[in-house]
Design a protein that fits this description.
Number of strands: 5
Structural class: alpha/beta
Number of helices: 7
Strand content: 15-25%
Radius of gyration: 15 Å
Largest sheet: 5 strands, mixed
Helix content: 25-40%
Distance between the termini: 17 Å
Strand order of the largest sheet: 2-1-3-4-5
């Protein structure tokens, strides 16, 4: 029987030094976890103000491309330009989300953690995207708990074969 991951408290107060946009991404990841989904959240901000946030909705919506970054961009709706925005995400972006960041010329990505998944930083940086990794322990703990409790679902999300 698979155990539910023990996630950090969803009601824990934000860190004193926290960026509100990053906290929106973190809270979105917590929401996904509470819904039984993959705990990855994202937020799009302009000038320090959150435009939209979203979370991985692959499980909830049966949508294979509904990663957290995609969900946040979808929630933001059409923008004339993304060149003055920052995308915040709790986990290093995968190749699909990296491609979207590059396509829309989002100049800056702030990442909660990259210890549990390395993402595509080299590609982002090669295209001029500034990447900042916070190494937020809450994000690391949240993803480790999820990956350990639901390895098949995690493998599905990143298009990896599960160990037989």
């Amino acid at each position: 029987m698979t155990q539910e991951p023990q996630l950090p408290s969803a009601t824990a107060p934000p860190r004193v030094d926290a960026d509100p946009a990053f906290e929106a991404a973190y809270q979105a990841a917590q929401k996904s976890a509470r819904e039984g989904g993959i705990p990855i959240g994202a937020a799009l901000a302009r000038g320090g103000a959150v435009i939209a946030s979203g979370h991985n909705e692959r499980v909830q919506n049966g949508d294979p491309i509904a990663h957290g970054e995609m969900s946040a961009l979808r929630a933001a709706g059409r923008q004339k330009s993304y060149r003055d925005t920052t995308l915040y995400t709790t986990l290093a972006p995968c190749a699909m989300c990296t491609g979207t960041i590059i396509q829309f010329k989002i100049p800056r990505v702030v990442v909660g953690e990259a210890r549990t998944f390395g993402g595509e930083f080299e590609l982002l940086r090669s295209r001029g995207v500034e990447v900042i990794v916070l190494d937020d322990q809450r994000c690391v703990d949240m993803m480790r708990a999820f990956q350990e409790s639901k390895p098949d679902l995690w493998a599905e999300d990143i298009a990896e074969d599960t160990a037989e």
